[in-house]
């Protein structure tokens, strides 16, 4: 159940989260960055930081592979432009074991790749993003093969807007394109399946 809270200048809110079984825990804090900058940090029972998020955009997202235990969630605020700012905190625990590239669920958290093959895992509701730097005129050839379900592959910009969709053929998806401008491009791996899907992505 989402928790609705309020932060003021210099305010710190702390929560306790009990994880009963091993799995992936994701935290999402929803707020407006123009009104405040809210940072997120998670520590385990030993005081070790296991996850953190401090981007300069709206909302924060963090996730980690958790073992059973008690975790402390701290929200700290700064640069508040109003008397107070509302936020929503949502925690989700999944038994889907994710890959080592997490958290790469948005373009700004994309894992960089270049002429390589990565072995990834896509869990339900969790898109994966990879970044690749291209020069104008470079040819980009990407293929992805999956086990456990079909995946969708797309080239997107930094906002997540689709530049080009891949071509699907069962459990294989390919994408071929030419860079129109020099810059960083992003590959999004997604699926409508609720199953755990493993995949190999080659660029």
- Residue fraction in strands: over 45%
Count, helices: 0
The whole-number mean of residue pLDDT values reads 87
Q: Categorize the overall geometry.
A: globular
Q: Which structural category fits the helices and strands? A: mainly beta
Order of helices and strands: EEEEEEEEEEEEEEEEEE
Biggest pleated sheet: 5 strands, mixed
Q: Tell me the strand order in the biggest sheet.
A: 9-11-17-13-14
Low-confidence stretches: none
What share of residues is helical? under 10%
Total number of beta strands: 18
Rg (CA only): 19 Å
Terminal CA distance reads 40 Å
Please provide a written account of the structure:
The chain is mainly beta. It is 0% helix and 58% strand. A hairpin with a 5-residue loop joins strand 4 and strand 5. It starts with a strand and ends with a strand. The mean pLDDT is 87.
């Amino acid at each position: 159940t989402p928790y609705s809270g309020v932060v003021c200048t210099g305010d710190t809110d702390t929560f306790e989260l009990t994880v009963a079984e091993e799995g992936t825990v994701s935290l999402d804090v929803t707020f407006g960055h123009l009104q405040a900058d809210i940072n997120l940090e998670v520590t385990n029972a030993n005081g070790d930081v296991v996850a953190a998020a401090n981007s300069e955009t709206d909302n924060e997202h963090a996730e980690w592979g958790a073992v059973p235990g008690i975790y402390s969630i701290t929200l700290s605020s700064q640069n508040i432009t109003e008397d107070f700012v509302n936020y929503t905190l949502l925690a989700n625990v999944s038994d889907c074991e994710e890959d080592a590239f997490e958290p790469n669920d948005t373009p700004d958290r994309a894992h960089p790749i270049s002429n390589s093959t990565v072995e990834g895992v896509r869990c339900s509701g969790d898109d994966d993003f990879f970044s690749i730097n291209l020069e104008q005129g470079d040819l980009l050839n990407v293929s992805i093969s999956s086990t456990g379900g079909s995946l969708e592959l797309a080239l997107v910009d930094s906002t997540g807007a689709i530049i080009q969709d891949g071509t699907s053929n069962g459990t294989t998806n390919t994408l071929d394109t030419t860079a129109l401008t020099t810059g960083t491009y992003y590959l999004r791996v997604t699926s409508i399946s609720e199953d755990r899907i493993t995949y190999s992505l080659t660029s």
